[in-house]
Amino acid sequence: MTKLVILDRDGVINEDSDAYVKTAEEWIPLPGSIEAISRLYKAGYTVVVATNQSGIGRGLFDLDDLEAMHAKLSDLLFNADTQLSGIFYCPHSPDDNCNCRKPAPGLLDAIADEFGIPLTGVPIVGDSLRDLQAGLSHQCTPILVRTGKGEKTEAKLPDQQDPALQQAPVFDDLSQAVDYLLATNNNTEKLP
Ligand SMILES: [Mg+2]
Ligand SMILES: [Zn+2]
User: Fold this and answer.
1) Which domains does the chain have, with CATH numbers?
2) Closest listed residue to residue 77, CA positions, set 36, 34, 28, 43
């Protein structure tokens, strides 16, 4: 029996960059993020990533570069005796009008398909409004972190129409968000 949690990548697990994270060298973990994923994993959570990677669609880097970044992430997790159960990414640019670039629901649709469960109540941790908005399409529980773009996003929460966004819990970083998740264990959806 496992519990699911969905994480954004840039600005949550690794340092964000306005110039895009384009190489494994530029992919720098945020302090405590690897350990936070490890704590989720060891508490029985299935941890997946849902990430917009429009730098691919914009021609700034390619799938080999993305794989190299994720190999670096996997190595760091392996060294912490932990792992992700999937990295779901949107490679498109905004001009592509795809259904997977958050806040569109496509990545979450794919996660629900992959694990064969509804995502109702599943925590989705992000630093951008679009992460939390994507979660709403599946009735996920949105959680904001102040890393990455999070402080700017926090300032926008009071203006949101949806109460789940207005009242989303906000934490300094992924480690604090994981403290909260492990303390409340509020994801009651179990995988078979
Ligand atoms: Mg982000
Ligand atoms: Zn897409």
Assistant:
1) 3-184 (3.40.50.1000)
2) 34
